[in-house]
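Q: Entry one of two.
A:
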Amino acid sequence: MKRIRYSKYTGNLTDELEMESLLEALSDFLLDSGFRSPFSRFQEMGSDQTIENLREAMRQALEYGDLFDDAMQQRIGQMAGNGELEELIEQLIERMEQENFVTFDRSQQGEQQPGHISNRPGQAGHETQAHFQVTDKGLDFLGYKTLRDLLGSLGKASFGRHDTRELATGVEISGGSRLYEFGDTMNLDATATLSSALAREGLSLPLNLEYADLHVHQSEYQSSCATVVMLDCSHSMILYGEDRFTPAKRVAMALSHLVRTQYPGDTLSLVLFHDSAEELPLSQLARAQVGPYYTNTREGLRLSQRILARQRKDMKQIVMITDGKPSALTLPDGRIYKSAFGLDPLVVHETLEEVARCKRSGIMINTFMLASDPGLVQFVQRVTAMCKGKAYFTTPETLGQYLLMDFLSRKMKTIH
């Protein structure tokens, strides 16, 4: 009789670790904005996305163990005690690349694999300075995690859609039928159409259908929206002992994931404003950092208008996240006029002129303030009064909740 002998499965810890949990544990490192928090486990590391920094961040995440159960943490502790932790880290780095969460710049690595970069004393150190980038898949996952946490805190059972009170002809049936009009989607209501013909012709064959007999189903009209997120990246976003920029980046990624998965007809763009302003692809958001810049709000509004002018949507809106009053202006000759003290009359006047242009173009501006500076509050109050938008005083901890609540409810309230 054939016998089968079973042995205890020890498994490979590299395969057992959930890559999503590890990525979440590394999120503060991957989304670093240049803020050196004394409470961060990654605060002693530089902001460069190098292989060596990734290796060190992964080592700290594994040893800290806040995302693993006791049994898993015990096994990690045993591997660290046996000197096997470094091998585990190298395998995890390879797996991160294989599953397309990060990509590596091999220009400084020769033919070596990213998980096998030499780090032994006495060997060339330039190889450890090879850089990596978070992929679109990695950013999308981090955006999903942020969105899930934010919606959970709001008590939302589902993402919902941008419903309005209008009815239109379409594929999804959610209302009664009506007479067909030229240009309607031909989603024919066969019952109503035949009933109309029978009422006119009676029970006779062949049954003649006329244009006036055609009835089509109605569906709820769902508006489309073009959104530009204006993100302040002036140096004040990481000053005063608080990181305001990283939470703003997380919210932008969460909003991007929401638009992509739940509102495929919508568009979302990102504009960073400082001394000037530039459009940033969402795929580059993780690497965005603050700098020693002023706040050129007007230039951000001008660029946002040019982006929205290319969109043919029912709604156009600007979501501005800032912690400072406007303090810079781009002059006609290209020079940057800067004023750091108070509300400069010239800067404020030109910025409000741009707000007025947004209003004439039908663009809504909603502002999320991350500070309570009197100058900022005064400026935002004037912007809100001019464009009939909304202003929220928030903190980095509550920014996502306020922004998502506003985004999810906006269209129902403005399109009737």
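Q: Entry two of two.
A:
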Amino acid sequence: MQMKGVIDRREFLKNLGIMGTGVLAATSPWLAAFASVDESRRERVRLGLIGPGSRGRFLLSFLAENPKCEVVAFADIYQPSLDEALKMVPTAKTYTDYRQLLEDKSIDAVVIATPLNTHYRIAMDAMDAGKQVYCEKAMAYTMEEARAMYLHHLETGCIFFTGQQRLFDPRYIKVMEMVGDGVFGKIAAINAFWYRNNDWRREVPSPELERQINWRLYRDSSRGLMTELACHQLQVGTWALGKLPKRVMGTGAITFWNDGREVYDNLHCIYEFESGEQMTYASVISNKFYGLEEQIQGNLGTVEPERGKFYFEDYGAAPAPAFVQMLMDWENKVWGANTFAGSSWDPEVARVNPGEYILGKAPESDGTSLLTEAFVEAVCTGKQPPRIAEEGYYATQMCLLGHKAIETGQTLEFPDDMKTDYAPYGTTKPQ
């Protein structure tokens, strides 16, 4: 039985023509994870979940429904999280030390959904234990940790996925095909933002658990909005442009939630590319009016993947918005119709343009179900899908570099020693 919100893989691939060739195969080659789906139908992955908190249990909701996956163990230092996970998979073993889970040689793969500052050690230990690894984004707490994790993936040959679900979101996959086909012309700018209006806190049953439960709010365990939110959206920008930014500058502050937190509640970054394109990133958590989006802007049109819509520049002449027309009428009554250069109240505003849906209808879900399914398929076949580890790696490095630019107040170049061999972005690892 298919869960609500789960994308039907076969129908999805059929609709997008994934199994064919061309631009789509070039922009999203990691979809090759599904190429052996029929051959692996008798395989079954034994999986352990390390960190069954809210995000971990969200992933579990898909993994537990996958007929090729048997969730056999949970590990967490917080007993209530283990208790909630057992409600979903009562037969699973539980551990308070993840290393005991890794000692179970019958476990093929692990999903890591723990606080950011713990990813590195757990992932490295998991690969040393011969486990295939799915690690939630961002990969690591520091750029050096992220590089060591990626290199260890290469050295051990272990499958490595990160939680960049947009890589498997139908809207984004189709958008990148359209961008690659030149539908929107030359892409000159990408404006990404994620706005919320809440304190980002979780209820704490006892004061001594504050830093354990609200780890996202403290510097020793979190990089705040950059690693928790920007990591998703910056990857969209490099995916669309097909290259890495050259430098980044940024600023951040705590301006509203003065409640003892140590990470910023608002921030802004500008990423500059070698040939002049700009990618901006903003996040504010005291106003949610604009929500979240990545606005990919070309000279022929704009696409907003989160909304699932695109807009062409030559939509056609449209009447002035009502408020502009009202002000023009008011000016004409007061000053007469013979103004020198038209109404001073007539700015260059966005005209009425309903746009078109990328996939013919409003979005229904993101790509998490397909991402987890691809991970299971990769473990079944023993094949690392092309480029997926690299996309996750560079997404992490970009958000960590942006965080460092905010902290130092400096314009920072993307460091050469953090680059790796990745032809799509034209980067090579240091010799």
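A: Comment on entry two: The CA atoms of residues 169 and 367 lie 4 Å apart. The first helix runs from residue 9 to 16.
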